[in-house]
Specification:
The complex is a heterodimer of chains A (about 375) and B (about 350). Chain A has about 375 residues and is α+β, with helices and mostly antiparallel strands. Chain A has two domains: about 5-230, P-loop containing nucleotide triphosphate hydrolases (Rossmann fold, 3-Layer(aba) Sandwich), CATH 3.40.50.300; about 235-365, Beta Barrel (OB fold (Dihydrolipoamide Acetyltransferase, E2P)), CATH 2.40.50.140. In chain A, about 25% of the residues lie in helices and about 35% in strands. Chain A has helices at about 40-50, 90-100, 105-120, 135-150, 165-185, 195-200, 220-225, 230-235, 265-275, and strands at about 5-15, 15-25, 30-35, 55-60, 65, 75-80, 155-160, 185-190, 205-210, 210-215, 240-250, 250-255, 260-265, 280-285, 290-295, 300-315, 315-325, 325-330, 345-350, 355, 365. In chain A, a hairpin with a 2-residue loop joins strand 16 and strand 17 (about 315-325). Chain A is elongated and about 80 Å long. The model of chain A has no long low-confidence stretch (mean pLDDT about 90). Chain B has two domains: about 5-225, P-loop containing nucleotide triphosphate hydrolases (Rossmann fold, 3-Layer(aba) Sandwich), CATH 3.40.50.300; about 235-345, Nucleic acid-binding proteins (OB fold (Dihydrolipoamide Acetyltransferase, E2P)). Chain B is built from nine helices and 21 strands. In chain B, the strands form five sheets. In chain B, strands 6-7-8-3-9-10 form a six-stranded mixed sheet, with helices on both faces. The longest helix of chain B has 18 residues, at about 165-180. The radius of gyration of chain B is 24 Å and the shape is globular. Classes of the chains: A alpha+beta (about 375), B alpha+beta (about 350). Chains A and B meet through helix 5, helix 6, helix 7, strand 16 and strand 17 of A and helix 6, helix 7, helix 8, strand 17 and strand 19 of B.
């Protein structure tokens, strides 16, 4: 187990800056997800921690000790990739024992640890089977078990669940979290899937275009996104972001939407925008579950009307796309009572609306 | 008249039989085909295209038997997962290629290109070559090429599964919008249940080469017709308990339950059965008929929380609305919403009381 520190790490490939000035503190035993879209620099970050690549600038430290110059095999890192690298010609037992044999552990110790891990991963009865006979799901369990059995200081996982089917993915998510709690290992998990990051990690580092956008606990990132990018990237169903021009007429502020329509501002979101008085372009973020239908529940809540454009079934809920001129709002149809093309009144919970500077993407807050 | 019909079509492969399949795609609908990998989904598209001749049965296109039709007469567009763009052509040239091939007039091409580019958000990359585009951009260009033609139907095979999760959510909404606006017929194949359910008007669930159920997404989600469908629809998946009904058919007995569970199924007296409950239909509750659980972990997802627990010997997933801040904050007993229990007999067929 180790703590990991990235101090102002920059990585350039020729003209292209893959990562810029990234600093992260990962505590011993923490589970950290690196989350971002394809090409954001998350895998580059992981490769540098692993020692597959060196930073152009800045340093990486394990327990305060610089890693530069320490070869990969001496860093004691466990890896799990999307394409599980399993020795298919070997038995399940041999696969699990491999890393321990390389380390020249006594035979009895190897046997004890292999059996314990096999039982832990539910592969106890498959030890003598050739790895080729395992299903895709079992192979991924074997890959994780094989890395975990050597008790690495740090465990790196690069999209380890993306080739699994949905049901097993949900199961493995829960399994990985329990495993990490049992092993107490520091884990770094790379993914573009915010649900995986939210459900697994103690902390999420949201990365976009090589820059760290926010670093915090899943619920902190969800409840209190630092900028428009994070708000948009984290949360399912996705947050509504409506963009427009801020207007102030005799002290009554509103957001005039691109393509027509207007949102009168009140309550918390009004105060937030008031704070950024010099800002012209604004963006309001509101999560679908913070929009409701029927009677207004609080004086500050913002009442709007629109047309139900479509309804879609997503898991246990129906989601409604509501069109207000050129703007669209996604809301949860929690009463299952809307119908397509219907005119509806809906309310935005004013204190749940987030204010962003449209130009910089920065979050605007009344009290900061 | 249906856009596409498949009647009793069957195709045998070594070790695998597709069908017999029966389905009818209505004009202007999104017909989804969902199933786990290797269920035969892509083979259905190949039947429709005529790339895979069936051993038995028939494929009808626009009401006429397609057996004697050339591929071009079937008038279908196709979007593959492995997008095949022409590398030497720009985005614009790739999109308009099928129109140029059909000698569509220039001004008409311009109008159609504009409409498609706007919906797919590709106006700014039309000048680029595929090599200069991101994966998502290439995929949108490939979609553009299929959508620009007014085909009888557009067949889409995992069209967005190579994209990032977030981009997929946006694209499926855009695709549906485009389909509605142009009133096109889509046959949409994906192994991603949420995606198919969200975009489709009706869905066929395929398992092991057979169609297990066809219905509207709500119906498939709320009333899966077979155990197989129940297993693959819903995320996290439905919790399933195997057991047996009492000899009077009034209780379900299962190793995982401390006491027999009161549930009436006359037809299943003394027979083996599986009872399913979706994660959102389990609630914290210490009523008399509740089940004791041992909590394992929580997954905070913002708007809701997944609670992982053990009931009897079985790992169960519970979807709690709102926040559960730590594993100690969830109850030690739960009940199942009796209105949303799913019962399947020994053969896996749904059995309602």
């Amino acid at each position: 187990m180790s703590s990991i520190t990235l101090n102002r790490v920059t990585k350039r490939f020729d003209q292209f800056t893959a990562l810029e000035n990234l600093s992260l503190d990962i505590l011993e035993g923490e589970f950290v997800a690196l989350l971002g879209p394809s090409g954001c620099g998350k895998t580059t970050t992981m490769n540098m921690i692993a020692g597959l690549d060196e930073p152009s600038e800045g340093g990486i430290y394990f327990d305060g000790e610089s890693l530069s110059g320490i070869p990969l095999q001496d860093r004691n890192i466990g890896f799990v990739f999307q394409n599980y690298a399993i020795f298919t010609h070997l038995s399940v037992y041999k696969n699990l024992a491999y890393g321990l044999e390389v380390r020249r552990l006594p035979k009895s110790e190897i046997e004890r640890r292999v059996r314990a891990m096999a039982d832990r991963m539910d592969l106890g009865k498959d030890l003598d089977r050739p790895a080729t006979s395992l299903s895709v799901n079992e192979l991924q369990k074997l890959a994780i078990g094989r890395s975990a059995v050597v008790e690495p200081r740090v465990f790196l996982l690069d999209e380890p669940l993306s080739s699994l089917d949905a049901g097993f993915r949900a199961y493995m998510r829960a399994e990985l979290k329990v495993l990490q709690q049992e092993f107490g290992q520091t884990m770094i998990y790379v993914t573009h899937d915010q649900i995986e990051a939210m459900s697994l990690a103690d902390k999420i580092a949201v990365i976009d275009k090589g820059r760290l956008m926010q670093y915090g606990s899943p619920l902190a990132v969800y409840d209190d996104p630092a900028n428009r990018f994070v708000a948009n990237f984290v949360g399912s169903p996705r947050i509504n972001l409506v963009d427009g021009e801020l207007r102030d007429e005799a002290g009554r502020r509103s957001l005039v939407l691109n393509g027509g329509g207007m949102i009168p501002l009140s309550g918390g979101v009004d105060a937030d925008f008031a704070r950024g008085a010099a800002v012209h372009g604004g963006s309001i973020g509101i999560r679908p579950q913070d929009i409701y239908f029927g009677d207004r529940r609080a004086d500050d809540d913002i009442r709007l009307t629109g047309t139900v454009e479509s309804l879609e079934r997503v898991g246990p809920r129906r989601l409604a796309y509501i069109r207000m001129q050129e703007a669209r709002f996604l809301a949860v149809d929690d009463r299952d009572e809307l119908s397509v093309r219907e005119e509806v009144a809906f309310h935005l919970v004013a204190n749940k609306c987030m204010a962003f500077n449209l130009k910089t993407g920065e979050r605007l807050r009344a009290n900061s | 008249m249906h856009a596409i019909e498949i009647k009793g079509a069957q195709k045998s492969f070594p070790g695998f039989t597709l069908g017999p399949l029966d389905l009818a795609v209505r004009r202007g609908e999104v017909f989804g085909i969902f199933g786990p990998p290797s269920a035969g989904k892509t083979s259905v598209l190949r039947l429709i295209l005529g790339l895979l001749p069936q051993d038995k049965g028939a494929v009808l296109v626009g009401g006429a038997d397609a057996a004697s039709m050339e591929a071009s007469e079937r008038d279908m567009s196709m979007v593959f997962q492995n997008l095949a763009l022409f590398p030497h052509m720009s985005g614009r040239e790739n999109i308009v290629f099928p129109l140029v091939e059909r000698n569509v007039p220039e001004d008409e091409i311009a109008v159609r290109l504009d409409a498609v580019s706007e919906v797919l958000h590709v106006s700014h990359i039309l000048h680029k070559k595929p090599a200069q585009m991101s994966g998502g951009e290439r995929q949108r260009i490939a979609l553009g090429r299929a959508l620009v033609v007014d085909s009888r139907a557009i067949l889409l095979d995992e069209p967005i599964s190579a994209l990032d999760a977030r981009l997929r959510e946006e694209m499926r909404v855009e695709l549906k919008r485009l389909q509605r606006t142009k009133n096109q017929t889509f046959v949409y194949v994906s192994h991603d249940e949420e995606e198919v359910m969200a975009i489709s008007d009706r869905v066929a669930v395929m398992i092991d080469g057979q169609i297990a159920q066809i219905g509207e997404p709500d119906e498939i989600y709320n009333r899966p017709g077979t155990l197989g469908v129940a297993k693959v629809v819903g995320s996290p998946p439905m919790n399933l308990f195997e057991g047996r009904f009492s000899s009077d058919g009034r209780y379900f007995e299962c190793e995982d339950f401390a006491v027999p569970y009161p549930l009436v199924r006359e037809a299943l007296k003394g027979k083996v059965a599986t009872v399913g409950i979706r994660p959102e239909d389990i609630r914290e509750d210490d009523a008399a008929a509740s089940h004791e659980i041992a909590l394992r972990s929580i997954e905070p997802l913002g708007g809701y929380t997944i609670v992982n627990a053990v009931l009897g010997h079985r790992l169960v997933k519970i979807r709690a609305s709102g926040r559960v801040t730590s594993v100690d904050r969830y109850g030690r007993r739960v009940t199942f919403d009796p209105r949303h229990l799913h019962v399947f007999d020994g053969e896996g067929s749904r059995c309602d009381g």
